[in-house]
Amino acid sequence: MPGGPPWWQRRFKGYGYRLTLPRQIILDVLSRTSRHLSAEEVYMAVRRIYPAIGLTTVYRTLDLLAQMGLISKFDFGDGRNRYELTAGPGSEHHHHLICISCGRIIDYTDFIDDEVEFLSMIGKTLSKKYNFKINTHQLQFYGLCDKCR
Amino acid sequence: MPGGPPWWQRRFKGYGYRLTLPRQIILDVLSRTSRHLSAEEVYMAVRRIYPAIGLTTVYRTLDLLAQMGLISKFDFGDGRNRYELTAGPGSEHHHHLICISCGRIIDYTDFIDDEVEFLSMIGKTLSKKYNFKINTHQLQFYGLCDKCR
DNA sequence: TAGTTATTGAAAATGGTTTCCATTATCATT
DNA sequence: AATGATAATGGAAACCATTTTCAATAACTA
Fold first, then answer.
1. A3 with A53, same domain?
2. What are the residues facing A105 on neighbouring strands?
3. Do B49 and B15 lie in a common domain?
4. By three-state DSSP, how is residue B136 classified?
5. Up-side HSE of residue A36: CA atoms within 13 Å toward CB?
6. φ and ψ at residue A96, rounded to 5 degrees
């Protein structure tokens, strides 16, 4: 556990953004927790450490972090957006299985290499054909988890 | 253009649902229009033919049709759900390119066969490993369209 | 250390979707 | 074709995640 400035500080400076306490705590929460937090959940978690935090700030910061590419924003169809770390230590590229009954989300990394290769190959061709600059993709499987089927 | 009862009537009977005017018109609108209508847009379109329609009914019917598998519900990230026919004549399996700047949605069918084969192969294995019954998948590419890049 | 200005937080506004409930329409049965 | 049980409808209000507004505060620069 080496100390030193957290890995994201330089990223903020680079963008010209200020490194504030709320932002650091939100990032910290996201980097510790397992996954897929909603804005409300992030708010709750940050609140324990920094009670003065406002929900508004959480929303703004999550948008900022997503725009910076540090986190990813997902919509799993339950009416609220969810966020998870995409960069930095401890994060790993993965896709999702989403239970349409209980809402459970299963991360899987099986086939990820194959998938990424396949998708980027397709992306490249689509990019050319439609003159479309692809930033990201989303692949998710919907169905029933073992408890709900 | 053969007459006869629309292809979906039997589907309704089968489910024990009543075949009402609002439902028929909503389905008709969806089967005529090009694509990706929001509930509001469906409401507007139905209104021209059947002014007494209520927005509530549109939402309820869209949910019903989605549940019946006749239409698919998508969230492209612009804050409203969108619906399109998945079954019946004139519909074709496809995936989407979504412009994160202007919101434009491009349907593509290139590689569809390869994609479906690849995804169902993956799906089959995931299904087994996680004991998860997969109903549908969603694959979408996000980026900038030719006008926005 | 002071000044500029990005950032914050509370409250109110927004907007898509859902709930409530009295009225209406569909369909099986007569 | 008329009846009755009940599914379906539509308008208003409720919901709830997210966004906007704006005065107060904090971060960085000079």
1. yes
2. A98
3. yes
4. strand
5. 16
6. -130, 145
* Tally of domains within chain B: 2
pTM strictly above 0.85? yes
User: Domain with A69 in it: what CATH number?
Assistant: 1.10.10.10
On whether both A3 and A62 belong to a single domain, the answer is: yes
Q: Name residue B63's amino acid.
A: D
| Strand D bases within 7 angstroms of protein beta carbons | 7-12, 16-21, 26-28
Phi/psi for B117 (5° steps) reads -65, -45
* Residue B126 CB neighbour total at 10 angstroms: 20
CA B123 to CA B137: how far, in whole Å?
Answer: 9
Q: Are residues B18 and B60 in the same domain?
A: yes
Pairing of strands B71-75, B81-85: antiparallel
Which of B62, B117, B133 to probe the A interface (max A CBs under 10 A)?
A: B133
From chain B, the residues in CB contact with A106 under 8 A are 130, 132
- The secondary element (H helix, E strand) that includes residue A139 is strand A133-144
CB burial class (10 A; 0-12, 13-18, 19+) of residue B58? buried
Per residue in A36-72, pLDDT (tens digit) is 999 999 999 999 999 999 999 999 999 999 999 999 9
Residue-wise pLDDT for B82-130, tens only, equals 999 997 767 788 899 999 888 899 999 999 999 999 999 999 999 999 9
Same domain, B31 and B71: yes
Write down which residue in A34, A63, A87 finishes a domain: A87
Question: Which domain covers residue A71, as residue numbers?
Answer: 1-87
* Chain B contact set for A108 (CB, 8 A): 126, 129-130
